[in-house]
Specification:
- The chain is mainly beta.
- Among the domains are: 1-149, Leucine-rich repeat, LRR (right-handed beta-alpha superhelix) (Alpha-Beta Horseshoe); 361-499, Leucine-rich repeat, LRR (right-handed beta-alpha superhelix) (Alpha-Beta Horseshoe), CATH 3.80.10; 504-601.
- It is built from one helix and 37 strands.
- The strands form seven sheets. The chain has a 20-stranded parallel beta sheet, with no helix packed on it.
Length: 601
């Protein structure tokens, strides 16, 4: 039972027979077998050696092709160093246990395939592979901690080592004069990168989730750099330009930079002056929780996207008057931000997110935002008024959830593109105007607007699909409900002042009807004609005595009548899946039910 075969330095060996039965072979050494030309011809049964762990073909100088490695599932070491005529490697994707791949001085090797799935690969030696045209994809090589031979790859344009989570350091990259793209995404153990100073034509540098990275060398020569992503580089605490350790150097010279992402650099307190970044279009600083000042922001004339979400120490935003190309401004959860200036000239702004800016008391006049599509002011608890909404003809989403100090909403009649309006728990809101022009509105949420007494006429909201008015405790009338033929969901739960429910028979698309705790509801008109109704909730309708025949509503699957204490009669029902009649103390007989799966009583 042969396990180890060494034919080291058999210089004249040109043929090997009898390997067919060596199924238990673990080591095969053919180093310095100078006359081997094709491994497939010399080793016809190598693929049967499923137990082979080590294959050495060091300095087999006439070997120009290798095949038949596909079955070597246990292979851990493959040494092809000084195979000077070898032009390509076979697909190694089946050798999933491979730990070491040595290709040193393979002068004619121009292609390497199938390395991506080699999760146990620890060492890759590509020294002096001068003909290599394209670097193999090394992403997801979680065990890789050493790469040799990168220094000689002068023509390399793309290097992607993403997800090499064990990689601690890179060799000196200073000779990579042609490198355009360097991706080191989630190299969590990587602490330092050398040789970046020579990257004169580098365009993309992706260092996201390099959580151990402490220092990045001078980038001042990389004037072609367009994308720099340092998302969640948690140990980075200062960016000044050319001075201190634990910094990014040469940032000031990157005049061609278009994208700068420093999101989740949680130790970062300040940035260098950004005024020289004339080409910068995308600036992301989300989750920079210690950042309290941004210098030079007012000079970024090409800026299109600015994300400062979760910059919880930021108190004031610089004047953005010159950033006239800005399309997206995100200030989500800037908890200390109390003032915003210079928004007046942002005519191209499409998205403005100020959600959770809990210290913000007022907004500047928004009347110039002619093409604004999305305005989010979720939980701006000190915000009392909003000016300039009347001109928002392109507005599609308007979010005022938990704006508890907001008393009045301006006229929205010109916002014909508006699709969603959310005013949930605006407790002081007592008046809303201008629903007449909202022809595209699909969702309207006014739940827990406890001061709201009346709504404008809803009859023009032809596209409305969802209407939520739960716990509008002072609301006593709903005008135009009958015209909402596209409505699928209606929630009037706990509208305790609502005197009368209008006829619902015209709501042809209604699927979900919630009238729980509607304490003045004596009867429901038109519900028997709702041919698409799936769920009806009448829980705690304490004066409701009778429910009409629902057998024609064949789509009804769920009926909730919990605590309808005066309900004495339920007429014939259809094919229900769920019925809750718990607490119906006056109910004398169960209804005639065709099919029912679950009853609560």
């Amino acid at each position: 039972m042969l396990k180890e075969l060494k034919l080291f330095q058999c210089l004249m060996l040109h043929e090997i027979d009898g390997l067919k039965g060596l199924k238990f072979l673990k080591t095969l050494d053919l180093s310095y077998c100078m006359t081997l030309e094709r491994a497939l011809e010399m080793l016809p049964y190598l693929s049967n050696s499923e137990m082979l762990e080590e294959l050495k073909l060091f300095q087999c100088q006439t070997l120009h092709e290798i095949e038949g490695l596909r079955g070597l599932k246990s292979l851990r070491t493959l040494d092809l160093s000084y195979c000077t005529t070898l032009e390509r490697l076979p697909d190694l994707s089946n050798s999933k246990m491979l730990e070491e791949l040595k290709l040193f001085h393979c002068l004619k090797l121009h292609e390497i395939e199938g390395l991506k799935g080699l999760k146990f690969l620890r060492m890759l030696d590509l020294r002096n592979c001068i003909a290599l045209e394209r670097f193999p994809d090394l992403s997801n090589l979680e065990k890789l901690h050493e790469i040799e031979g990168l220094k000689g790859l002068k023509s390399l344009k793309i290097l992607d080592l993403s997800y090499c989570i064990a990689l601690e350091r890179l060799p000196d990259l200073s000779n990579y004069e042609m490198l355009e793209e360097l991706k080191l995404l989630q190299c969590q153990e990587l602490r330092e990168i050398e040789g970046v100073k020579g990257f004169e034509i580098l365009k993309t540098l992706d260092l996201r989730f390099c959580t151990a990275l402490e220092r990045l060398l001078d980038l001042s020569n990389s004037q072609m750099l367009k994308g720099l992503d340092l998302y969640q580089c948690e140990k980075l605490h200062e960016i000044e330009g050319l001075k201190k350790l634990h910094e990014i150097e040469g940032l000031k010279a990157l005049k061609s930079l278009k994208k700068l992402d420093l999101s989740s650099c949680i130790s970062l307190e300040r940035l260098p002056d950004l005024s020289s970044f004339e080409m910068l279009e995308n600036l992301k600083l989300a989750h920079c929780q210690k950042l309290h000042e941004i210098e030079g922001l007012e000079d970024l004339k090409s800026l299109m996207t600015l994300d400062l979400s979760y910059c919880t120490a930021l108190e004031r935003l610089p004047n953005l008057l010159n950033s006239k190309m800005l399309k997206e401004l995100k200030l989500f959860q800037c908890l200390k931000l109390y003032e915003i200036e210079g928004l007046k000239g942002l005519k191209y702004l499409k998205t403005l997110d100020l959600s959770y800016c809990t210290a913000l008391e007022r907004l500047p006049d928004l009347s110039n935002f002619e093409i604004l599509e999305e305005l989010k002011l979720f939980q701006c608890q000190e915000l009392r008024e909003i000016e300039g909404l009347k001109g928002f003809e392109s507005l599609k989403t308007l979010d005022f959830l938990f704006c508890t100090a907001l008393e009045r909403l301006p006229d929205l009649s010109n916002s014909e593109m508006l699709k969603g309006l959310d005013l949930y728990q605006c407790k002081k809101l007592y008046e809303i105007d201008g629903f007449k022009g909202l022809k595209s509105l699909k969702t309207l949420n006014l739940s827990l607007c406890i001061s709201l007494e009346r709504l404008p006429d809803l009859s023009n909201l032809e596209m409305l699909v969802q209407l939520k008015l739960a716990e509008c405790q002072k609301l006593h009338e709903i005008e135009g409900l009958k015209a909402l033929k596209s409505l699928k969901m209606l929630d009037l739960s706990s509208c305790i002042s609502l005197e009368r429910l209008p006829d619902l028979s015209n709501l042809e698309m209604l699927e979900d009807l919630k009238l729980a705790n509607y304490q003045k509801l004596h009867e429901i008109e038109g519900v028997e004609d709702l041919k698409t109704l799936k769920m009806l909730d009448l829980s705690s309708c304490t004066v409701l005595e009778r429910i009409t025949n629902l057998s024609r509503v064949t789509t009804l699957k769920e009926l909730r009548l919990h605590n309808c204490v005066k309900l004495s009669e339920i007429c014939r029902l259809g094919e229900l899946q769920f019925l809750d009649i718990s607490g119906c103390m006056s109910l004398q007989n169960l209804p005639d039910i065709l099919i029912i799966r679950e009853v609560w009583h």
